[in-house]
Amino acid sequence: MEGGAAASTPAALPYYVAFSQLLGLTLVAMTGAWLGLYRGGIAWESDLQFNAHPLCMVIGLVFLQGDALLVYRVFRNEAKRTTKVLHGLLHVFALVIALVGLVAVFDYHRKKGYADLYSLHSWCGILVFVLYFVQWLVGFSFFLFPGAPFSLRSRYRPQHIFFGATIFLLSVGTALLGLKEALLFNLGDKYSAFEPEGVLANVLGLLLACFGGAVLYILTRADWKRPSQAEEQALSMDFKTLTEGDSPGSQ
Amino acid sequence: MEGGAAASTPAALPYYVAFSQLLGLTLVAMTGAWLGLYRGGIAWESDLQFNAHPLCMVIGLVFLQGDALLVYRVFRNEAKRTTKVLHGLLHVFALVIALVGLVAVFDYHRKKGYADLYSLHSWCGILVFVLYFVQWLVGFSFFLFPGAPFSLRSRYRPQHIFFGATIFLLSVGTALLGLKEALLFNLGDKYSAFEPEGVLANVLGLLLACFGGAVLYILTRADWKRPSQAEEQALSMDFKTLTEGDSPGSQ
Fold it and tell me: What parts of the sequence cross the membrane (chains A, B) (predicted)?
C-alpha cells in the first residue's frame, strides 16, 4: 500500500462497513442461537442434520457472499489482482459451505423419505446455487484465468456486478423464505401466539433484510467505488487503443 | 418532445421495458388466476375478503411501484416536471391500492378473530408500507412542493433512488413471504405432492423475483440513465454557483 493512497478512503465508509459486519456476525450468531435454543442444535448423523442447512446457507450464501461483494470497497488501496483473488476466494468458501448445506438437506430428506424440490424456497434456492456457480465460473475465466481481452472485460464488468448483486439479493430472499417455511412447519398455530421462537426468528428475518440492504448501500454508493489506480488506468488506455481504438463510452 | 431528442433513447431499452411490462402484467394476471381458480375469487363482504389482499399488494406495491421507478427511463425526452408528477402519481395510486389491501387483511382478521402482526411477512409488510409512505412524503416535499434548495436536492437524490429501489425489492420479498405463507396454510401436506396450485404459485413466485430483477436492471444500467436536459443543466449550474460556489463532486 502506498503511503498517500490511504487518504483516499471516504471518511464514512469504514463505519458503514463496520456496521455491516456487526449485522452479519449478529445474524450468524442468531441463526446459531435459534438452532441451539429451539431446534436441538446441530449433528450430521441424526435428525439434527437438517439444522446444518440453515446455518451453512446463512454463513455461505448470505454473510460470506455479502462480504465478497464488499472486498473492492474495503481493500481499495491494495493491488487490483490481490483484491480480485480475495474476491474469488471468498466466493469459493461461500460456494463450498453452501454445498455442505445443500447436501445436508437432500440427505435429510432422503433418510426421512420427504419429497425434494416442491417448494418456492427450494426452487429459488436451486436457481441461486446454479446462477452463483455459473457467475463464479464466468467471472473466473474472464477476470482471472485465462482472462478475456480488455474490451470484452469492460463490457462484461457491469453485467458481472449487476448479476452478482442480484444473486446476493435473491440469496437473502431465499433465506427469508426458508426461515418462514421452518417457522410454519415447526410452530404451526403457536406462531400466532407470539412464541419466543417466532419473535426471535422474525427478528432474524429483519436482520437478514437489513444486512442485504447495508451491503447493497455500500456497493452502490457512487462516491465509494474503488478508484482506478494510476498504473491500471495507463495499462487500460494502452489496451483500449490497441484493441479497439475508441473511447470507453462508445458501446 | 423535441424532434432530435428521441434519437437519444438507447436502442435496447424499449425491448427491456416491454419485457418488464409483459412480466408485470403476467404476474398480475397470474395472481388473479390463482385466486380465481383455487381460492374462490374475490368479494369484500365474505370470507373471500382476504383474497383482495394479495391482488391489491401485487398490483400496488409490486407492479405499479416498479413502473413508477421506470418512469425516468421511459419518458426520457419529456419535460422533467411532467415525468416527476407522473412518478409521484403512480406512487400515490400504488399507496392507495396497497392501503385497500391492508384494510382487507386487517378487516378479515378482525371478523375471524385471528391475531394480527405476528408473522415475518406482516412485520416486513408494515415496514415496507411505513417506509414507502415516508419516502413519498420526503420525496414530494423535496422535489415537488415546497421543494428543497438545489444543493440539498442534489445530496438527497442518490439516497431517494437507493431507498426507492430498496423499498421496491423489500416489497417483492414481502410478497414472496406472503405467497409462501398462503401456500403452507392452504395446501399443507398437499404442497409436497406437486399439486397444480402449488406449482402455479411457485411459478408466480419466480415471476415476482424476475420482475424485481428486470426493473432493477433497467434502473441501474448506467448508460440508460435519463440525460440531463440542456436547460436544466444551465439552471443547475446557476443555482450551484449561487448557493454553493463549488464543484458538484466536492461533498
Answer: 12-37, 57-75, 87-106, 126-148, 160-179, 199-219
